[in-house]
Amino acid sequence: MKIGTTIAASIITIVIAALITVFVVRSLMPAQETSYDIVVVVKAMSPDMEFWEIVRAGIDTAAREFGVEPRVTGPWLERDIADQIRILSEIIDERPDGVILAASDYEALAPLADRAVAAGISLVTIDSAVAGDAAASFVATDNLRAGERAGEAMAAVLPEGSTVAIVSHIEEVATSIDREYGALRGLARRGNYNFLGTYFSENTLELAYAHAERLMNEHPDLGGIIGLNETSTVGVARAVRDAGKASQVRVVGFDHSQEEIAFLEQDVIQALIVQKPFNMGYVSLRTMIDVLEGRAVEQFIDTGSELVTRENMYDPEFQQLLFPFFDPAR
Amino acid sequence: MSERGPAGRRRSTILPRIGGIQASITAALSMMVLITILFMSVASYNVTRRVLVDTAQEYTAQLVTQLRASIDSYIANMKSIAEVIHRDSNVRRYVSDADPGVDVRESVFSLLNSVSQTRDDISLLMVAGTNGDPVFHDDGLRMNPAVSLEQQRWFRSAANAGGEPVITPAQVQNIIADRYRWVISLSRTMAGGVLLVDLNFTIIEDLLASVQLGNRGYVFVVSETGALVYHPQQQLIFSNLRDERIAEVMAIGRGSFTAGYGSDEQIYTVAHSESTGWKVVGVNYVEELLADARDVLVLYVLFGFLCFVLVVLLSQLLTVRISYPIRRLRESMKAVEQGNFDIQVDVRGGAEVVDLSRDFNIMIGEIKSLMRQNSARQAEMRQSELKALQNQITPHFVYNTLDSIIWMAEGREYERVITMTSALARLLRLSISQGNELIPVSAELEHVENYLTIQRMRYSPEKVDFHIEADPAVLGQETLRIVLQPLVENAIYHGLRTKDQGGHIVVRVFRDSDTLVCEVSDDGVGMPVELARSLLHGDAAASRLKEVTAGRARSGRTGESSGVGVRNVHDRIRLYYGEAYGLSFESELGCGTTVIVRQPVLEKKLEST
After folding, report:
1. What count of CB pairs under 8 Å joins A to B?
2. For residue A241, which of A265, A273, A218 has the smallest C-alpha distance?
3. What is the rounded distance in angstroms from the CA atom of residue B265 to the CA atom of residue B263?
């Protein structure tokens, strides 16, 4: 009778105490277990693609800091667009928490990006965006601003009224359009320049070289050429060096391959606009974690670019940028 | 007493009462256990935390000291290599001579080459003289045409140092064509030339990067001037995406300090290298160190829960030992409260409880005998009171009647003397006989008839006329004896005697459901309501008893005594049957009075007697 009711009361008390204990223990246990499943799909996995290697180094750094273990995958080379589409669609089927995507093609990957978001996967794009508004954030170099810097750098080494040409990579690509527009705006801001036009290298050294050679032949008064990516810049620099016109034709380019650095030291190239792939990788993962944890993120995050010249290239902050510790041979 | 009974009892059976023994025991023990656990877990957490932090700090201090020592040994090695080359006579000749000749150059090269073979951490050895033809340790290397030695930072530092070896922090060495390597340079001027030893920085970087300080911890190196020599997140720092506490590191020099809050609380441990002026800094995240301390805390919480369960079980046991016997005792007390004095409690439990139940039993026994005594005394008292009340009537009336008889005898009215004497004799027999309080209605009616007969003869048949009506069904019922006679007496003295033309008295007896009703009506002068009420609500019965026994009624006037009689009837009925019964009056001035007597109908009691 009464013993029964007190036993019931005791059992209730013990159950309540057990629930409180479980709650306290769970709140004391660190949230290590709630690690996110994040997949990074880059444009190129080949170790020769130094840019992407450095992006991955940045991602690794952020991964350690935020306690996540992202998988990094992608096609071997940047031009394997179909491969990237296949890889991404396989990943979407695995339903990870988040995908960080560097789209090889602005249009071709857009349907997959939409599908990923529809499947409840958070999407952050880096370096190159996709069409549509699927991505929560786009982490990249502000190419308009980078182009402007290139234009301004050219104006700094070239007297007003000179003739300038641009060698770009691919006509319809967003980076190309933005950089070209920015470069022209940068030039125009500093003075009047005679603009010959923009020529496309289709991402080959040969075509860039040929464009530069032809331009120098057809326009003896040519004062400068702006290369809008690494291949275009190297092709142009080689043509200028081979023509022996290094002192006449000024070259401003993008990125920082070893050959470009040598050209910079030799004063064939006067300035390089250097992106920050390490920051791009780091910031993209940090942004992804912000997205997954429900914090507000910017639609576009500029990871910045630096203007590197012969004078400042061995300054401590630029040495790291031009010669990252990261060693591809390792 | 009874109003809080049922509700209170029901509540106590559902849950242990707040303030009850079980609840108190549970609360006290739980409180004790919780406070102990809380205190112990906080104390041990703090101790564990301190131990863990101290251990980590010590470990980190050893680690950074070791790293510093490794770097120092690399530097020392560079210095000794530099010293070997510096002392070599061929080298001296090569750097000072404007045209040293191929043999000298060859011997310098073989020296550099053989030294470089011994160490794989050496990236570059170079001797450059006034002749403008630097010698490298590897003859496959060529000067970078775009640079000049004089522009190099390490060259200028060496030139300023005046022959002392100078260490230049990590930088990219670009003097070799198509080769850009991170190196630490040792440079030294000698006899118009310069000597350069480059240490492959990748080795130091690997060393530093391989250090694991938890998942988030890391190691970095700053130079004397506070410039970063190595930091795993150097690019982030240059881009202002991340801060490093370089100023604090420089301020403390060596030792350790903590910075940041919450999950970003860090411990910085700094080791200082004398040979390079660098500081090797280990950074630990306190949160990571405390994972073990948290485990200890979890253990304490679980332990606390276990103790709590034990407390509940223990209090259960104590309840069975203490609270349960007390509850049983209480139930027995409740039974006593409700009038059951035949209870004997047999409660087992603690010694105190057994004593308590024994005392309780003794107390119940005492109460029981006291109550028995009390009720016996009360019965006695009532008996004597009733007797006194009945006796009151008789002598008073007998005296008057005998007086009348004497008068009649003197007038020789023998018929009337006989009638009156026989009526008196029957009256007295009915009054005295039996001693029973209850008599049949028929006997009571006979009594009152005899009385009225006597009274009519004393006054006159005109003055007192009477009529008795009785329902034959009620004749066998029981009534309290001598109930009607005082009422009739009252009717005569109050209603008829003062009325000149005489009056009529009607006695009616009938049954009204469970009530035996006797009515005595007169058509006399009537009385005011106040008087009627005062007849019933006078002093208490006890004081009247005194009055009666003191004989005041006897010496008093007849009017008074009849009032006392009516009140006696009322009090007796109520004493016997309770408050619900007794007399009531219906009276109208000038028209008469009716006195109604109500008694309960007691079925079948008559047969048994």
Report:
1. 114
2. A265
3. 6
- What is chain A's length? 330
Q: Do residues B185 and B157 make contact, with C-beta atoms less than 8 angstroms apart?
A: no
Sign of the dihedral through C-alpha B310, B311, B316, B318: positive
User: pLDDT by residue (tens digit) across A108-125?
Assistant: 888 999 999 999 999 999
The token pair at B167 is 């260490």
| CATH number among 3.40.50.880, 3.40.50.2300, 3.80.10.10, 3.40.50.620, domain A143-275 | 3.40.50.2300
With helix as H, strand as E and coil as C, how does B103-136 read? HHHHHHHHHHHHHHHHCCCEEEEEEECCCCCCEE
Quick check: B577 and B602 in contact, CB under 8 A? no
Tokens of B467: 């009529």
C-alpha distances out from residue A35 to A91, A97, A293, A295, Å: 18, 10, 11, 17
Compute the 3-state secondary structure of chain A and give helix, strand, coil in percent, each to the nearest 5. 50, 20, 35
Give the start-to-end residue ranges of the domains of chain B. 88-203, 374-608
Q: Do the chains contact at B309 and A24, CB–CB below 8 Å? A: no
Q: Which fold has domain B88-203?
A: Beta-Lactamase (3.30.450)
On whether any CB of chain A is under 8 Å from the CB of B584, the answer is no
Which regions in chain B score pLDDT beneath 50?
1-15, 539-561, 605-609
Across the interface, of B205, B235, B309, the residue whose CB is closest to A279 is: B235
Domain boundaries defined on chain A: 33-141+277-298, 143-275
Instruction: Give the residue carrying structure tokens 């200890």.
Output: B296
For residue B216, which residues of chain A lie inside 8 Å, CB to CB? 64-65, 67
Domain spanning B374-608: CATH 3.30.565.10: yes
Chain B segment 234-293 residues within 8 A of A by beta carbon are 234-236, 238-239, 241, 287, 291
Q: For residue A329, what is the nearest residue in chain B, using CA coordinates?
A: B202
Burial of B254 (0-12, 13-18, 19+ CB in 10 A): middle
Among candidates A6, A29, A266 on the partner chain, residue whose Cβ is nearest the Cβ of B22: A6
The pLDDT of residue B9: 42
Two tokens, residue B141: 């290397």
Classify strands B266-272 and B279-285 as parallel, antiparallel or unpaired. antiparallel
Structure tokens at A42: 């880059």
Minimal C-alpha gap between A121 and chain B (Å)? 27
- Give the model's pLDDT for residue B604: 52
Q: Which two tokens stand for residue B294?
A: 């948290």
Tally of CB atoms within 10 A around A221: 9
- pLDDT by residue for chain A (330 residues), tens only, comes to 455 666 777 788 788 888 888 887 777 666 555 688 999 999 888 877 778 888 988 898 888 888 888 999 999 887 788 899 999 999 999 999 999 999 888 888 889 999 999 999 999 999 888 888 888 999 999 999 999 999 999 999 999 889 999 999 888 777 888 999 999 999 999 989 999 999 998 888 999 999 999 999 999 999 999 999 888 999 999 999 999 988 899 999 998 888 899 899 999 999 999 998 889 999 999 999 999 988 999 999 999 899 999 888 888 778 878 887 655 333
CATH for A33-141+277-298 (3.65.10.10, 3.20.20.140, 3.40.50.2300, 3.90.1150.10): 3.40.50.2300
Domains A33-141+277-298 and A143-275 alike in fold: yes
Contacts 24+ apart (CB under 8 A), B179-185: B179/B141, B180/A258, B180/A261, B180/A323, B181/B123, B181/B124, B182/A323, B182/A325, B183/B123, B183/B124, B184/B74, B184/B75, B184/B78, B185/B154
* DSSP reduced 3-state for A55: helix
The answer to whether B442 touches B475, Cβ cutoff 8 Å, is yes
Q: Which helix (H) or strand (E) segment is B28 a member of?
A: helix B21-87
pLDDT for residue B550 = 43
Measure in Å the smallest separation between the Cα of A97 and chain B Cα atoms. 22
